[in-house]
Design goal:
The protein is an alpha+beta fold. It is about 25% helix and about 35% strand. Helix 1 packs antiparallel against helix 2. The radius of gyration is 21 Å and the shape is globular.
Length: about 220
Amino acid sequence: MDALNANMEAARLLLAKDGGVHLNPARKSSWQAVNQETNDASTVSAPSLSIGAWQSAPEATQGPLRQISDATGRASVLFERINPEGDMMLVGGAAAEIGAHTALGTYIPARLPGDEPNPVLQTILGGQVYRGRLYLQGSWHTVVCDPLRQGAGDVYGMVCVGLNNSGIRSLEAELKANYVGTHGSVAVFMSTAKIAGSCWWSPPASPRRRRRSGSQRCWRRV
């Protein structure tokens, strides 16, 4: 997360260099908005967001978001609030796995299908920086997201930088393929602050071991 925090600092500097992100109520675009939880679609008319000369629109280029992604090596995405409830629609994005138009118009609902508040947007709409996971482009990302607001007004969007977690699954597969001696294997432990020593990943227990212990656990650190 420290690296992502540094990436977000770089993104903030690049955005500030272009004058920041601005809401333009007089300039609107029509979007085909798709709820990423339910896939329900609807037509939404939303004011454009601008960064320098770049304006958000369904047909817009990646613009300054591509510069941020190139500078940080991370996904760089821009969301706009589309209703009083706080749903956030993807209106711009750039990364190796994000095309100029791919997934633009998908939105994160403020309330999940079970009517629980979405913890990501609950944090952002409260004016706080969100650090955690976000489902984007068909996979989970670890992200840092800044709320966007004009002065002391309501939050009108958010900008995020993120790391695609699909690489973690690749690491897991590689670890599973490793062994040490006849019965040994590989595990990964956290090394940061309060979570130092806690287990991040360990190989699945053998059926015999599961019967004996009743659960899968990491080994005790010594």
